[in-house]
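From the shared-data thread, chain only:
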Amino acid sequence: MEKTAIVTDSTASIPEQLLQELKINTVPYYIHRGKEVLRDLVTIKRDEFYQWLPTAQQLPQTASPGPGDYIELYQKLSNEGAEEIISIHMTSKGSGAYQAAMAAKAMLEETLPKLKIDVVDTLNVSMCHGWMVIEAARAALANVSFADIAERIRRMIPNTRMLQTADTLKYLYMGGRIGKAKHMLGSLLSIKPLIGMTDGVIVPLGTARSRRQAYQMMVDLIEKAIGPGGKIKIAYVHAAALDEAQKIKEMVEERLSVVEGMFAELSPALGVHTGPGTA
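Structure, as tokens:
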């Protein structure tokens, strides 16, 4: 066990191989499907979930882990030799995970007073959140100090951006997560919505008449943000739509310099709000 342990949630959607290689500890979200209580990526896997989701008459409900889930993991890591924990979470404006982790930290201050815990609200989701976890884990394995790792992550927050399109906004709307993009609902069947996240809240970025046009708009937005020829790290994230993610990759790499790229698939706890076909 390294001195500094990195903790996150299943919604970071980090590829399993990286979770293992970088010794990242995850706490699964809950998915309530009828009377079933499932644990994200533990008792429900991606393939099974995305095959079932289009047949659902009612969307499952998701719930963030509670303070007890984090206390259990923090105590386990402490028992294994961790002296410091950096716990990194999706936007607090879309989930209660950050608040639950903060509550767990407060509860452990008396029983484990020597254990340092820093809880980070990334104000983002999916692999934007996941990139911060990956960089934190790499730094921890390189014996970077606790304070420096936390500072690195917080510097990433304003520079890490999510761009997403889908066949429909239906799932976001049904799940109540569409936020400021509600006005786009009138054209659900005829447009490909493009959304992003600003200050932890989903926002509309435009509409396209085809997926390819939406992907072109994505590349334009990235290039505008980093400048022509700019260097980026990028995750091509999808929900049961690897072929679409590969198309985006080709378009990105035609115009931009990708320092590091990877494919990742949304965990079911996030995919329930976007639906299969998201990229």
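The chain is about 40% helix and 25% strand.
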